[in-house]
Structure formats: structure tokens, C-alpha cells
Amino acid sequence: MSTSSPARAGAEAHLGHVVFISAAAAMGGFLFGYDSAVINGAVTGIQKHFNVGNGETAFVVAIALLGSAGGAVVAGRLADQFGRVRTMLLAATLFAISGVGSMFPPSVQLLGFWRVIGGVAIGIASVIAPTYIAEVAPTAYRGRLASFQQLAIVLGITISQLANYALNQAAGGDSTGHLGGIQAWQWMLGVETIPALVYGGLALAIPESPRHLIATGKEEKARAVLRDVEGETVDLDARVAEIRSVLDTAHKPRLADLLGGRFGLLPIVWVGIGASVFQQFVGINVIFYYSSFLWQSVGIDESNSLLISLSTSLVNVVGTVIAIALVDRIGRKPLALAGSAGMALALGLAAWAFSHRVGKGDTATLENAYATTALVAAHVFVLCFAFSWGVVVWVLLGEMFPNKIRALALSVAASAQWLANWAITVTFPDLSDWNLSATYVGYAFFALLSIPFVAFCIKETKGRALEEMG
């Protein structure tokens, strides 16, 4: 005989529904992670196939991030004009097109073009998922549900590294080896078409955001969605009135709404941009875009470097799970501060280990003791990032802005994140060839600088309703 009450059963049922739709929206994050990190395994194959050096390689890797910045810029406007779900469908379509095009590029320039298309999809997904999840999630669960975005990203990264390693091994340990008449690196880039189609199917199965429905005059549909996600005990009239009152006092968001203050933009927008930039300037995506290149630059062969990439991706998943468990319990700021301190120490240790590298390029080596230190430091760095900034920034960006500018401000902040990501990505090959240790000292400096930024600029959003963000 069951001892659960009807109220509890109802609460569990609506929570299960919210988890499903949040996970479906976060599938865009999975593709975001897969598409952005899969290039890591393909870099060596691209260099060999097209006979290009570090400059052209950096161009192909980084060009997608400019597309991501563009996608992030337009995502907010698309989401407000066409709805969150239709915008997800557009992202899924672009992911699929990019996957097919990147698999069969006749030149490195056209590969760059198809990566730009995938980058636009990444930029859209980076904005739409946290926006949608923040708008459908009950306040008590919002932090954990918003964390689904980062969990999906790290799972996408991990699956991409697993696929890269498996394809590399199947091709005899060489990314230019053939599988079914197609080189392994081409398969690596093309496989994302499958999750892109899954994302599109899931987007068709979830409801539109209640806030967008109310904004477009579809209040009955909004009531139905709110009933499904917040339960039967919620006063739907009061919730609709609360959302409508916020929307009625606002006008259609435009760039001018973000202007103000002494430095051109509203202070809260600068904080969002700052959080986005710091998240990238610690060098996290060097690990996920270039780790095979990085480890080969200190004397580790291609197969083992891909295996290391897979192991760091698994650590990334573990750290993200820790963050999901803690973000609504201890808050956003404590996690960010702890992560900043841990990253600074790990990056400093990695810089010290890399200072003992002997030689450059194919002849570079690192003695076993220093190589082990660098590997441990890299894994600790990824763990500290994953349980803090990896999750916290995306949660904050979905929460911290006032309702009337949320989607647009999130677009601007996410675009800044992609530009910062591009800057780190495009400079790493040349910087690492110049002085790998000094490059990591720079990343450690930004990790240290992020501590006072969090302490003095970030406001805790734990437990606050979105309508309270003023």
C-alpha cells in the first residue's frame, strides 16, 4: 500500500515533466559541447590532409567561435520574435547542416565556412537553453535545472572525445586513416548530425516558455504550461498576473535598453560580460580544443594524447555533477570563489611543469616527473572549473538580468564569451610555440583576478524569483 500523498505524487509528476523539458532544451548544450570540442581530435588529421601549419589550424579551430558570437547576438532577438522552441529548431537544423558540410570539405577554407555555420548554431544554443530553462523552472529547482545546460555541454565534450579516440583507434591510430573510404577526422566532424536530429525531435516535444506565451497574448496556453511545471497547488491567476505585470511595464527589448551608467552599458550587463570573459580567459577551452595538440607538443603520441583528452572530459563530467548537487544548496558565489582559487593553483603548477619542456614541435619532450605533474595539474584545473565557473556562469546568465532585458542581455554576455573564447583559441598555437609556460602563467593570472571580481561584483541569485531581478 502506497504511503505517498496525492500532493506529493503531483509534485513529483510535475517535477519529472520539468526535468524532461529542461533536459530536452539542454540537448542544445550537448551539441554545443560536441561541436566545439570535436575539432580537438581532428586537428592533426586536418593539418596532414590539407598540409597546413599552426596559423591555418588556429584559423579553422577559432573561426567557429566568431560564428558563435554572431549566433549569440541574434539569438535573443530570434527568441523574442519567434519563440524559444522555434529558435531551438533553427539551431538543430544548422548543427545538422554543419556536420554534413564539415565531413566533406574540398578545401580548408570551406571547412572553415561550415564550422562558422556550426558556430552560429552553438551561439544560438548557448543563449536559448539557459533562457528557456530559467523561464520554465520552479524557483526552488532553478539552479539545478539550469545546470543541465553545463552538464549537457560536458557530456557533449566527453562523447566527442570518446568518439575521436574510438575512430582514431579504428583507423590504426592515425586520424588520416580510412574507415569505409573516408578519413577518421571526417567521421569525427560528421557524426554530430545524429544528435542534431535528436535535438530537433526533442524541441518538437516540449512546450513554449510561459513568459513568451504571455508576451504574445496566449495566456491560456501559458496557464497550461505553468500548471504542468509548477503543479496544481500554484495560484495560476497570481502567477500569470505577476508575469504579465512585469511584461506590461516593459517594451520590446532593444539594444538601447542595455545602455546606461558611466561606461556605456548598465552595470549588470558589464557584470555579465565580465563573468563570461573570465570564464574563457582562464584557458579552459585550450584543454578541450587543443589538448591533443598540447600533449603532443610535450612529446606524447597522438593516440595517448586523445586518451588524455578523454580522461579530462570525464573529470569535467564529475565536476559538473558536483556543481549540480551544490549550486542550490550553498549558492553561486561560494562555488565560483572556491573554483577560482583551485584553478589559480592548478594553472600555476602546470606553468611550472611546462617550464621544463625541452625542444619545440615534433621534437619537444618533458621528463616523466614534470609530465606527470602537468597531467595532474590539468585534471585538477578541469575539476575546479567544472564544479564552479563551468556551471555558475551559465546559471547566473539565465538569472541575473531583469525580465525586460534578459534575453537580449544574455545574448550580449554570451557573445562576449565567444569573442573571449576566440581570442584564447586563435592565440594558443603561436603562444604555446613561443613559451608554453608563460602562456599558462597568463591563464593563472586571470584565475586569480576572478576572485575579487566574484567577491565584489557578483550578487547571489540563489532562491530569488526571476521577477525579483531588478
Secondary structure layout:
Blueprint: H1 6-37, H2 39-50, H3 54-82, H4 84-103, H5 108-136, H6 142-170, E1 178-179, E2 182-183, H7 184-190, H8 193-203, H9 210-215, H10 219-230, H11 236-248, H12 267-281, H13 284-296, H14 302-326, H15 332-354, H16 368-386, H17 389-399, H18 406-457
Antiparallel strand pairs: 1-2
What does this molecule look like?
- 76% of the residues lie in helices and 1% in strands.
- A hairpin with a 2-residue loop joins β1 (178-179) and β2 (182-183).
- It has helices at residues 6-37, 39-50, 54-82, 84-103, 108-136, 142-170, 184-190, 193-203, 210-215, 219-230, 236-248, 267-281, 284-296, 302-326, 332-354, 368-386, 389-399, 406-457; strands at 178-179, 182-183.
- The chain is globular and about 70 Å long.
- The chain has a two-stranded antiparallel sheet.
Q: For the largest beta sheet, what order do the strands appear in spatially?
A: 1-2
The level-1 CATH class: Mainly Alpha
Helicity, in percent? Answer: over 70%
Briefly note the structural class of the backbone: mainly alpha
Major sheet summary line: 2 strands, antiparallel
Order of SSEs: HHHHHHEEHHHHHHHHHHHH
Q: Averaging pLDDT over every residue, what do you get? A: 84
Q: Number of helical segments?
A: 18
Unreliable stretches, pLDDT < 50, 5 or more residues? 1-11
CATH architecture annotation: Up-down Bundle
Can you tell me the number of structural domains? 1
